[in-house]
Amino acid sequence: MGRDRAILDAAAEAFYEKGFHGVGVDELGARAGLSGPSLYRHFSGKDEILATLLNEAMDGLISATVPVHDDPALDLQRALRHHVDFAVGHRHLINLYQREVRSLAEPWKGRFDLRRSLYTDRWESLFGRRFPALDQPTVAAVTQASLGMIFSLSYWPGRTVQGVDVEALLSSLLSHGLGSFEPAQTTAPGPAC
Fold first, then answer.
1. How confident is the model at residue 187 (pLDDT cuts 50, 70, 90)?
2. Closest C-alpha among 75, 96, 84 to residue 9
């Protein structure tokens, strides 16, 4: 494993346990098997480490928001499934994002905010394509509600996710909830008896 990866993994764990502001460079170095000052050969400091971790998460998430199907329902289903899988597999990273994104400093903050805006726009496009009858404010609210449900997983107690197929549970909840936006199926009256 490369030193950069070791530092990033150690930082993700430390930031998750103690928060961004609760961890010093010396501790990050020690957790990665380096002295604090030698960490600066790899990163300019904690701010760059946090930005790198958050951008890695965003890379994994934003790529799934690009439409790949002609069918908007398949695209939305694929993107939701990817995000549920990502949230299950990267709970600590999602938690880090939710708690510490406000700690990003410049020059990383501005670039990350632009990427986050693109990410949100792409999600709204996926929902808008899938449910064209919804107005834009509703599409924005549905987007945030869906992502909020998925990413709330990062705050669930560990015992809650044990023994439960979390992917299936979240996918079912999302599917049923979003089903309420389907046009009502009308059936022609049958012949009178």
1. very low
2. 96
